[in-house]
Design the sequence.
């Protein structure tokens, strides 16, 4: 019996990434993840333009089974090289003087990588956070975050679609994917938004709930 194509591809991918890794001490990112463990994360930024804006804070929590280890959270302020816009301050309430003593982005992301390890990543609109982090990760490692990514809003969309009959699904229903709506519908507590740890915890709670709902 031959080697499954997926396993072969994964082995070749790992070999390629190890060959091209910029900092060998981070090779642990490519190891198999601990079973039933994930990391939920969130970033606050100076804006929403991935190629221009910068990270000002990062929050993350580990998920083990059905538990969020909030007491072992990761939380760090990041010192941007540019200005913090008034518009972004209104959202996350982090002024330039609040982040002036933050870590350089490289140091902050290195610490985050040690916290994450090889665990899959969970988040609400995670694609943006990963893109912002990869702006820092890629120059360090030679490639972006390799972990599996799990988008909470996509899980919620699949859950809502699964509740509908065939006719309802064919009508292209407009499903409200806002975080407050999602949390309320799932019966989960809302925390103060635009705080990266709070946002990571809310995404983690939604992930745990949806993981069970989708396997019923």
Sequence:
């Amino acid at each position: 019996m031959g080697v499954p194509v997926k396993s072969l591809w994964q082995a070749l991918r790992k070999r390629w990434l190890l060959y091209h890794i910029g900092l060998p001490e981070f090779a642990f990112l490519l190891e198999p993840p601990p079973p039933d463990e994930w990391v939920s994360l969130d970033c606050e930024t100076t804006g929403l333009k991935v190629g221009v804006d910068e990270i000002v804070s990062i929050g993350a929590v580990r998920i083990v089974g059905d538990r969020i280890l909030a007491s072992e959270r990761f939380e760090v302020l990041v010192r941007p090289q540019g200005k913090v816009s008034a518009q972004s301050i209104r959202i996350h309430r982090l002024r330039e003087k609040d982040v002036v003593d933050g870590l350089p982005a490289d140091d902050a992301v290195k610490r985050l990588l040690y916290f994450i390890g090889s665990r899959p990543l969970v988040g609400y609109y995670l694609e943006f956070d990963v893109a912002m982090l990869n702006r820092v990760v890629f120059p360090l490692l030679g490639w972006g975050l390799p972990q599996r990514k799990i988008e909470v809003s996509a899980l919620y969309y699949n859950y809502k679609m699964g509740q509908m009959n065939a006719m309802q699904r064919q009508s292209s229903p407009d499903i409200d994917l806002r975080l407050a709506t999602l949390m309320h519908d799932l019966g989960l507590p809302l925390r103060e938004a635009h705080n990266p740890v709070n946002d990571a915890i809310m995404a983690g709670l939604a992930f745990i709930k949806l993981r069970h709902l989708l396997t019923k």
Q: What stands out?
A: The chain has a mean pLDDT of 91.
